From TrEMBL:
This is Ubiquinol-cytochrome C reductase. It comes from the Bacteria. InterPro entries: 5hmC_binding, EVE_domain, PUA-like_sf, THYN1-like_EVE. Residues 2-138 form the EVE domain.
Length: 141
DNA sequence: GCCAACGTTGGC
DNA sequence: GCCAACGTTGGC
């Protein structure tokens, strides 16, 4: 069981949008190899924080992996006819009663080294168990 | 295989 | 809107 953090721009796809649809959805359109590799490493039942980038800049909820990495339906095949971009499918688990902002994370010594902070451009990154538990607690769970 | 130029992400 | 950080591309 591993923990992750996945970013989405709320203008495009917010946590509430995902909850409202209520069905598993592809985490598509990731076009970065590191982020893709992280998704390929995900196992069924792994959980991830849902982070709102640009607008909000906070962790707002938890989602879980319900389908292993598979070809991204929005990706075009390359010149060899291969689709190199993959994604997992996710479902919402629960909303954080109190969103945890990036500002708070940066101010919390135990969280200041998170991939979210250190690799700010990475849209799908790992979260350690200690980080996970602390953020859940800070989020009111 | 190196590296400069360019593009993109995302915080500020 | 700017810029830092990083990824990608392409010339050599």
């Amino acid at each position: 069981m591993a923990y992750w953090l996945m970013k989405s721009e709320p203008d495009v796809n917010s946590y509430d949008d995902v909850v409202a649809r209520g069905v598993p959805e592809e985490w598509h359109s990731v076009r970065n190899y590191t982020a893709r590799n992280n998704m390929k490493a995900m196992q069924l039942g792994d959980e991830a924080f849902f982070y709102h980038s640009n607008v909000g800049k906070e962790i707002v909820g938890i989602i879980k992996v319900v389908a292993l990495a598979h070809p991204d339906s929005t990706a075009e095949p390359n010149e060899k006819g291969n689709i190199v971009w993959e994604c997992v499918d996710v479902l919402p688990v629960k909303k954080l009663p109190k969103p945890v902002t990036l500002e708070t994370i940066k101010k919390t010594p135990e969280l200041a080294n998170m991939a979210l902070v250190k690799l700010s451009r990475l849209s799908v990154g790992p979260v350690t168990e200690a980080e996970w538990k602390l953020i859940c607690k800070m989020g009111g769970l």
